[in-house]
Amino acid sequence: FCVCQAAPGEDIRLYLRDAAGDFLGTFSRLGAEAGREGREIVFAMNGGMYHADRRPVGLYVEDGVAEAGLVTRAGPGNFGLLPNGVLCIQSDAVSVMESLAFKAAAPECAFASQSGPMLVIDGALHPRFLPNSTSQFIRNGVGVRGDGAFFAVISDAPVTFHQFARFFRDVLETPNALFMDGKVSRLFAPEFGRRDIGFPFGPMLAVTRAAD
User: Fold this and answer.
1) CB 134: neighbour CB atoms within 10 A?
2) How far, in Å, CA of 192 to CA of 183, rounded?
3) Do residues 47 and 203 lie in contact, with contact meaning Cβ atoms separated by under 8 Å?
4) What span, in angstroms and rounded, lies between the C-alpha atoms of 81 and 120?
5) Rounded to whole angstroms, how far apart are CA atoms 18 and 185?
């Protein structure tokens, strides 16, 4: 696994469109957008599931404005494999919450992205994950440790949901972790020498810092 870590207070956010309202879609355009803000990318990866036209599938909030609403019903695909969850980014903290718990708590998120399934829920693996599953893909996800440390992870080789979830729970010790996607998963992390390429994304997750 390739593990990227950020501390509370670092610039963690989600990106979907540029200033003109066009979808960013690629790490190169994301880098240009960050550059216009005087920042550079520390790491970035796909940040949530999206429709064919790149609109978010579930809840998506950017700069406090919701572009899509919370979806709590079961449905097809990984997103509908309940329980799913929400990544919520606030000014001083990041959290991962199961979707119904998120709805009940109604936290104010500067940025939020709903995806699914949850990998780890309050220290337990998702109940539908099978240790002997044969479904293996490159996968990426996010989790938050008890001390507030934020992890964005992508597998270096195809893995099952069960293997991926156990890595978050048993190695990174994140009581809650969320699957972001599978076949489309890619990472941009210059310090790791990672500049994955592929088809354009919908939402993207990035940690940035002030450019030199």
Assistant:
1) 6
2) 21
3) yes
4) 13
5) 21
The tens digit of pLDDT for each residue in 144-201 reads 999 999 999 999 999 999 999 999 999 999 999 999 999 899 999 999 999 999 999 9
pTM of this structure: 0.96
Query: For residues 25 and 201, what is the distance between their CA atoms, to the nearest angstrom?
Result: 4
Q: Which residues pair with 2 in a beta bridge?
A: 154
> Residue 32 corresponds to which amino acid?
A
- In the 3-class helix/strand/coil scheme, how is the chain assigned residue by residue? CEEEEECCCCEEEEECECCCCCECCCHHHHHHHHHHCCEEEEEEEECCCECCCCCECCCEEECCEEEECCCCCCCCCCCCCCCCEEEEECCCCEEEEEHHHHHHHCCCCCEEEEECCEEEECCEECCCCCCCCCCCECCEEEEECCCCCEEEEECCCCECHHHHHHHHHHHCCCCEEEEEECCCCCEEEHHHCEECCCCCCCCEEEEEEECC
Q: Is the torsion defined by CA of 97, 89, 196, 55 positive or negative?
A: positive
1 CB neighbour count, 10 Å cutoff: 18
Q: How far apart are CA 198 and CA 175, in angstroms?
A: 31
Spatial CB neighbours of 185, under 8 Å, sequence gap ≥ 6: 45, 46, 137, 138, 139, 140, 154, 155
